[in-house]
Amino acid sequence: MMAFIFQLIGAYLVSIVCAIFLEAPKNLMFKVPIVVVGGWFVYLILLNGLGINIIVATYLASLVIAWLSHKMARRYHKPVTLFFLPGFFTLVPGGGMYRTALAFIQGETTSGFQELGTTMFTALAIALAVYTIDSAVNIKYNQQRPKFIRKNRMIPLRKYTKNKSR
User: Fold this and answer.
1) What are phi and psi of 151, to 5 degrees?
2) Which ranges of 143-158 would DSSP assign to H, the alpha helix?
3) CA angle (131, 97, 20) in 5-degree steps
4) For residues 60 and 41, is the Cβ–Cβ distance under 8 A?
5) Cα–Cα distances in Å, from 4 out to 10, 29, 37, 68?
6) What's the rounded mean pLDDT across residues 5-20?
7) Hey, which of 83-87, 139-143, 152-156 has the most confident mean pLDDT?
8) Is 146 left (phi over 0), alpha (psi -120 to 50) or beta?
9) How many Å apart are CA 158 and CA 161, to the nearest integer?
10) How much is the pLDDT for 62?
11) Are 103 and 109 in contact, with CB atoms under 8 Å apart?
């Protein structure tokens, strides 16, 4: 339980440092970590609590981060990337890339390819989650009516009911 709390605190601190690095506005400096801690919390629960595969846990946590990022960006009228980038710092498989390179340098090609597959699928899960949420938000907020449908207007009937007895 203490390790779980320490990891959440670590995610919070990482997100504050990333927000400083991205030059986030001061009024959002302590609101950006909400996205990061929410995604990391879901990741830890899925990975450690429920024993789900690392790739599926990364995908579901990335869905949460992307969704929270869009919500926060709309609420505070800031770019989504201000919330995306710190959110994904904790999920990016940098350690997996290191272990892949180490395995290939040491000549262990089997474990290197195995680690490479896991790392690539983890990165793909993050990209797929971002695409999924961006598409859903685009459909929800940017869907436009066809040009021939008038919004909140009735078609005047006199145009079509003119006296044709002329």
Assistant:
1) -95, 125
2) none
3) 65
4) no
5) 10, 23, 12, 21
6) 89
7) 83-87
8) beta
9) 5
10) 94
11) yes
- Share above pLDDT 90 across residues of the chain, in percent, rounded to a whole number: 43
Contact 56, 46 (CB under 8 A): yes
- The amino acid present at 156, given as its one-letter code, is P
Choose the most confident range, by mean pLDDT, from 46-50, 85-89, 125-129: 125-129
Rg of the chain, C-alpha, whole Å: 24
Q: Given the structure tokens 């680690």, which residue do they identify?
A: 115
Q: Give the burial class of 136: count Cβ atoms within 10 A of its Cβ; 0-12 exposed, 13-18 middle, 19 or more buried.
A: middle
Residue 42 CB contacts under 8 Å (≥ 6 apart), including other chains:
60, 61, 64
| pLDDT for the residue numbered 155 | 53
Taking Cα atoms as reference points, which of 159, 18, 133, 160 lies closest to residue 64? 133
pLDDT at 166: 53
Q: What is the pLDDT of residue 131?
A: 93
Query: What mean pLDDT do residues 136-146 have?
Result: 74
Which residue do the tokens 């504050």 mark? 16
Collect all residues with Cβ–Cβ distance below 8 Å to 97 and sequence separation of at least 6. Answer: 119
